Amino acid sequence: MTFDAVPLAELAPAKINLALHVTGRRADGYHLLESLVVFAELGDTVTVSAADEDRFLVDGPFAALVPLDGANLVLRARDALRAAYPAHASQRVAISLEKNLPVASGIGGGSSDAAAAIRALARLWGLPATASELVQLSLQLGADLPMCLTARPLVARGIGEELQPIDSLPCLALVLVNPGIGVETPKVFRALASRDNQPLAALPEAAAIVEWLAFSRNDLEAPAIAIEPSIADALGALRRAGAAFARMSGSGATCFGIFDSPEAARDAAASIAAERPGWFTAATTTRS
Description:
- The protein folds into 2 domains: 8-165, Ribosomal Protein S5, domain 2; 173-285, Alpha-Beta Plaits (2-Layer Sandwich), CATH 3.30.70.890.
- It is built from 9 helices and 10 strands.
- It has helices at 73-84, 109-125, 131-139, 145-150, 185-190, 209-213, 221-227, 230-240, 262-275; strands spanning 8-25, 31-50, 55-59, 93-98, 154-158, 162-165, 173-178, 245-248, 255-259, 280-285.
- The strands form 2 sheets. Strands 1, 2, 3, 4, 5 and 6 form a 6-stranded mixed β-sheet that branches. A 4-stranded antiparallel β-sheet has the order 8-9-7-10, with helices on one face.
- A hairpin with a 5-residue loop joins strand 1 (8-25) and strand 2 (31-50).
- 44% of the residues are buried.
């Protein structure tokens, strides 16, 4: 079998939980969720190419925080594909990761990187895998992988594996802010006061998404702020900069603000960055 020598690149977009309701807990300890999820045009980039030996290189502003061993989800994704498709995936590969998003920040960085690696390697190796088969394979790597592999607006339920694509959401102009900290997801879940909360309400017409969000929740926001009070500072900065709505994403610490236009988002990001130069701040839009 021959392989294309041209490197294949895949965006690993930031995953933003516009709403995240914790609705229960399974006997095995996994929490049950209902989450409205979108993906941004901003993200990391994973590039793969055929090579004479396996290589993994990382660069970008957050490269120093990325593990280079078997703890990295990108390498685990590569190995999972090899185990599932040994006849097709024996070719050695060079994988490079441009790490533009902060680590452990509630916007799906590692999971999105792994999902991008799965998409790119499936193309490089010509794997005889359906989209649903890749989704099932990805779930063994983490509950966020199926939604990151899909990388489009959706409602995720269960532990994250039950996906309902959404076509009615408008493109949103966002500012992402992280106050320079990572938050351990298990620690946030342990701090939850209630694990049996109300599910998401029915989704609105596209034009009413901000109003709908005001009656939704991120059930992890309060415990995350109790652990890292600077998350509240990030939310305050977004609101002072004119966000029509601001909330923490995932288990934190990254927060998002929704703005009226991409221009307003860029102006707000510049204002926050000037006020807080040590923070990660970026303007972006959502992908359809």
